[in-house]
Amino acid sequence: MTTFASGTDTLTRDALTVLQPGFTGTTAPDWLLRRLGEGLASVGLFGRNIASAEQLSVLTAQLRAERDDVLVAIDEEGGDVTRLEVRTGSSFPGNHALGAVDDVDLTRDVAAELGRRLAACGVNLNWAPSADVNSNAANPVIGVRSFGAEPGLVARHTAAYVTGLQSAGVAACTKHFPGHGDTAVDSHHALPRIDVPAEVLSERELAPFRAAIAAGTRAVMSAHILVPALDPDRPATLSHRILTDLLRRELNYDGLIVTDGMEMRAIAGTYGIERGSVLAIAAGADAICVGGGLADDETVRRLRDALVSAVRSGELPEARLAEAADRVRSLARWTATAKAARPQPDPDTEVGLRAARRALRLTGADTFTPLTDPPYVAALSPVANIAVGDETPWGVAAELFRLLPGTETGTFSGEDAGLATLAAAGPRRIVAVVRDEHRHAWMAAALDSILRTRPDTVVIEMGLPQAPPRGTLHIATHGAARVCGRAAAEIIAGA
Length: 495
Fold this sequence. Notes:
The chain contains 17 helices and 14 strands. It is globular. Helix 13 crosses helix 17 (482-493). 42% of the residues lie in helices and 11% in strands. The protein has helices at 10-17, 30-38, 53-66, 95-101, 104-120, 151-167, 198-214, 240-250, 265-268, 273-283, 297-313, 318-341, 351-359, 397-403, 417-425, 441-453, 482-493; strands at residues 19-20, 42-45, 71-74, 125-126, 171-177, 219-222, 256-258, 288-289, 361-363, 376-380, 408-412, 430-434, 458-461, 473-476. The chain is of the alpha/beta class.
């Protein structure tokens, strides 16, 4: 049973309960275990905390030895954003690939298998799925993390994902409310703004969240975005109009509201994390996510003290903080009940690969002859956004090497990428791998240069397939997960 440290008053425990901090390392540090004893109820895990499924199971058991009802959260979307397989690439395609297939049963099955693997490792809260309608193709942070650009498609797959994930006893956290799809700014770096009428927001952005709520999502994550049609003054995470009036009252949502990472510049660079956390709880949020960048005891202490001081000064009603803490505890009770009531589904270890194969879109396949000699794989690589990170490998080189031993590879970027690719490839057949060609002028120019000299080049688009298909064979994978690369490599090698 969980026991709290003596002398920890109710107000302080509630302030700790609403925090979802992170830490560094693959074992729990002493300060984190101490905070769990004082009332901390949640811990967030990232790629830096995971070396293997076995190690993760030991880590979560270590946390539960200190507090048996702890919420262990993770940012595991599958596809481009993976923490379970951060060093190898995901066994599951991401949302955009699932949307391209448009089979809700498949989406539910993929989410159920992902949930089974999380539950087996002791994780009970997943900061997924992304329910953003990616209506802006220039979006630098959502992209293939979205099921698509059509609200109905995103809504039905969001609901299927929530249902599948929660069938394994893992709480879904649908994000990023009220919708991050129509932005051209990454909220990790600055405060995005969506300037569309309320009617458009209701029909487009809110449709997937309505579906998620109807499907029973246990948590919703707020977005650090300014939406003047809803609140001209404060970003959604800090907006009473958006979190309480809209999400709670209009959409009738009664589950946990979690903030996106408070150290993101959209909040930290404008309000600061202490002030931002107080405003978020006052606005209607129940849990403060922090720890992607700030991951130490000092951060926990600062946020705890800021919340306690705000209550004592009268700025934050004590009843609001207590309500938020109660919702955290309620979700913890649900996860315990769900784990006991829902036997783990039978493993379907191949569902991710089957989905990735079905998501491929081929142009030129009718006249393409599979390669028999090892090619040169040129990855035209953009800078990764923070949500995806640069730890996770992507592309097709490793999978092609498995099928065509002797395959060589190189990574290129910038204005000389095309010429450098041609020089490095020599006489070998070129496989050019791109990610969001439409967003990077240098990448399009590099492909122009390569194809002028080597028109037999195979082009693989592993981001949003917005640019016109070209090359002797063009493969759109709708994401850069490892299984997407494997599915593409099978086509190239005729496997």
